[in-house]
Write a structure and sequence with these properties.
The protein is an alpha+beta fold. Helix content is about 50%, strand content about 20%. The strands form 5 sheets. A 6-stranded antiparallel beta sheet has the order 5-4-3-8-7-6, sandwiched between helices. The relative contact order is 0.04.
Length: about 700
């Protein structure tokens, strides 16, 4: 029991000081007690990282509240400050022991101060002080435990909402429902996810939830955008009238308060969650703490759900790709397989499995060498290794397997292509693909066709050569008969027909021989020599005019028309073109032949009026023995009066042999013009 402090009176007698009330002691020593308490807290946690809450925080208010409680007698302490202190300590990361410890230090500081001053309290005041402290501690601990339990229950329900790995949108709705059920003052809640530079409402429950879905705001725009930009929780009061509410639905439903919390995982902003209340202008500290705690956990769940969504999408896409691949492999008539870098079969279709002589499932995981005959494996393995090393495909490699390797099939010819398989956006190889086709029948057919073509062309050459001798005899005999004076007019006309027919047959045989030479790979022979193209053309036209006295054959030339060409071939080209023009031109219209000297070429043009060549026939006009299928009435009529034999084909080949080219233009207005370019200096012939 403390002795009361005494002092001397004017008569020298000691005077006892008046005992203090506990409330007066607390008010008088408040600053000293706070200083000693703060010093004790630092000493208690010496060497540890200080928490921001080790500042005075609610302690000044708690001392005043204790003094007021002592003055009120048995009415009890003010619980609001104790509740707030408990919530703040919970938010700041204190555990329950630390909360009790700071109250114990406060009690010790008060008792030490009383002892140091040697002051007596009024009877019962110390007990009342101890009781008030105990009630404050009990209230704080009780509220601390209640809020922590409430938070744990909410987090447990959130964890249960993620057990089945839901999609992101489903998870967001579940989490919002947990928030609504855990906080009675909340009338609306939603989550906006950051997509590019906008915040999009992906989930919303409560008032206006359906209307809010899909709406969006720009990052930094309005209240929600400001929460995202600053990454700090914010409260908006009078939400129904505040212009910063950029989601109209939040204003339309009459919310009085909105609280926004950024959803952040690490340094990554995921979005913003908000609470809205229509009944209150603010939320309690406990509700805000719970919401922030749930949002911190929700950010991790959302990120996890996103990753699961991506994994599911990737799995679905992979399964879809594999299904398409399997369908392609099954439907392909070609043998196809995929092998890993160790040359183990990953996939193989039935066609290639049948060729190898094993079922598809027997190949999987086995190497090429295990599934192929040694001779084939020895041939293929180096090629496959080269593809893997270089990353370059091996195209259309042909090989043969003797009868001894595949007795039921006999000797076979194969064509195989190997190509590297790369992972998208990666430089490494996943393996390689193989496409195998049996070309035995193709090779046999190709050989048979080649033999037939060779026989046909050799036959044409033989026939063309052997027909020349009797035809020359017919032509010479007709010439001799034509000179006989005793022939009557009808007999003379008959002899003339024989002579002209022999001439046409001679030209036909020449064309056949030229065609045979071109197809046998020899090409049409030419013997260039210095000549004047205009002179050769004029002489050729004079000979043609004798055979066609009723049709005017007009000729003109300009410029330098000299060069090195084969004069016989030039005459042959002009003869074929003029004969073609006479056959298809108008019955009484002239045929114009023009020779024009240019810088590098001499151009020969043959023009006639008459029915134009149909457009669908033009692309194949120079093909041998080809008559394009008529697709219009004009084409059908044109085909009936002409034969696309060898004449124009020979023209084209002679021009190529000289390094030149042939063009044709035909229309109703301009008529038909064949234009042959004869280069003065021969260039390599163009590809056919």
């Amino acid at each position: 029991m403390l002795e009361p402090e005494t002092r001397s009176t004017e008569h020298g007698e000691p005077e006892r000081e008046t005992p203090l009330r506990a409330s007066d002691f607390l008010r008088a020593n408040r600053e000293a007690l706070l200083s000693e308490w703060e010093h004790a807290m630092h000493a208690l946690h010496a060497g540890l990282r200080e928490k921001p809450s080790w500042l005075l925080d609610h302690m000044p208010g708690l001392l005043v509240s204790l003094a007021d409680t002592l003055d009120q007698g048995e009415q009890g302490p003010d619980t609001a400050l104790a509740d707030e202190h408990a919530v703040v300590r919970l938010d700041q990361g204190f555990d329950l022991g630390e909360v009790v410890a700071e109250y114990a230090l406060l009690r010790k500081c008060i008792l030490r101060r009383l002892e140091a001053q040697a002051r007596l309290l009024e009877p019962g005041e110390l007990e009342r002080l101890e009781g008030a402290l105990d009630r404050t501690v009990v209230r704080t601990v009780q509220r601390f435990a209640e809020e922590r339990q409430r938070g744990l229950q909410a987090l447990d329900r959130m964890a249960q909402a993620t057990l089945d790995g839901p999609a992101v949108d489903t998870l967001l709705v579940r989490l919002l429902n947990v928030v609504m059920e855990s906080t009675l003052t909340v009338d609306s809640a939603g989550v906006l996810m950051l997509e590019a530079d906008r915040l999009v409402v992906r989930a919303a429950v409560g008032l206006g939830g359906d209307k809010a879905l899909g709406s969006s705001v720009a990052l930094g725009e309005g209240f929600v955008g400001e929460v995202a930009a600053t990454r700090q929780p914010m409260t908006l009061r009078s939400a129904s009238t505040d212009s910063r509410v950029v989601l109209p639905v939040l204003r339309d439903v009459g919310l009085r308060a909105v609280y926004g919390v950024p959803l952040v995982e690490g340094t990554r902003l995921l979005g913003v969650a908000y609470l809205g209340s229509r009944t209150s202008f603010g939320f309690s500290d406990a509700d805000l703490l719970l919401f922030r705690t749930m949002c911190q956990r929700a950010a991790a769940y959302i990120l996890q759900a996103r990753l699961q969504d991506m994994e599911r999408d990737a799995r679905v896409e992979a399964q879809r790709s594999l299904a398409l691949l399997d369908a392609l492999l099954a439907a392909s008539p070609l043998g196809m397989a995929f092998l890993d870098p160790e040359l183990r079969y990953l996939r193989i279709n039935q066609t290639l499995a049948d060729i190898n002589g094993f079922p598809p499932e027997a190949h999987l995981g086995r190497t090429l060498r295990e599934m192929q005959p040694k001779a084939v494996a020895d041939l293929m393995e180096p090629l496959l290794r080269r593809v893997l090393e270089t990353g370059e495909p091996l195209q259309s490699f042909e090989f043969a397997t003797p009868t001894s390797l595949m007795p039921p099939r006999g000797k076979r010819m194969w064509q195989v292509t190997f190509y590297p398989v790369r992972e998208p956006q990666a430089s490494g190889l996943l393996g390689l693909g193989c496409v195998l086709v049996d070309i035995t029948h193709h090779k046999q057919t190709e050989a048979s066709l080649q033999r037939a073509v060779d026989f046909r062309e050799q036959l044409l050459a033989v026939l063309g050569h052997d027909l020349r001798n009797p035809l020359n005899a017919i032509g010479a005999s007709a010439f001799q008969l034509a000179r006989a004076e005793e022939l009557e007019a009808p007999e003379r006309r008959a002899v003339e027909r024989i002579r002209k027919s022999a001439g046409r047959m001679g030209r036909m045989i020449t064309d056949i021989l030229d065609f045979a030479r071109s197809k046998l790979g020899e090409g049409i022979p030419v013997s260039p020599q210095p000549m004047d193209l205009a002179d050769v053309c004029q002489a050729t036209l004079e000979e043609l005019q004798v055979s066609h006295p009723g049709r005017p054959l007009l000729f003109e030339s300009s410029g330098d028309t000299s060069g090195d060409w084969d004069p016989d071939r030039v005459a042959q080209v002009l003869g074929n073109l003029v004969s073609n023009a006479l056959q298809h031109g108008g019955g009484d219209t002239p045929v114009h032949t023009r020779v024009r000297g240019e810088a590098h070429d001499v151009v020969l043009e043959v023009h006639n009026r008459g029915e134009p060549i149909p457009a669908e026939l033009l692309p194949r006009i120079f093909d041998p023995f080809k008559t394009p299928v008529a697709t219009s009435e004009s084409a059908s009529t044109y085909q009936k009066q002409r034969s696309l034999g060898l004449g124009l084909y020979i023209v084209h080949q002679i021009a190529r042999a000289h390094g030149g080219r042939v063009e044709v233009r035909s229309s109703e207005e301009e008529g038909t013009t064949f234009r042959v370019y004869w280069p003065r200096a021969k260039s390599p012939p163009a590809r056919a």
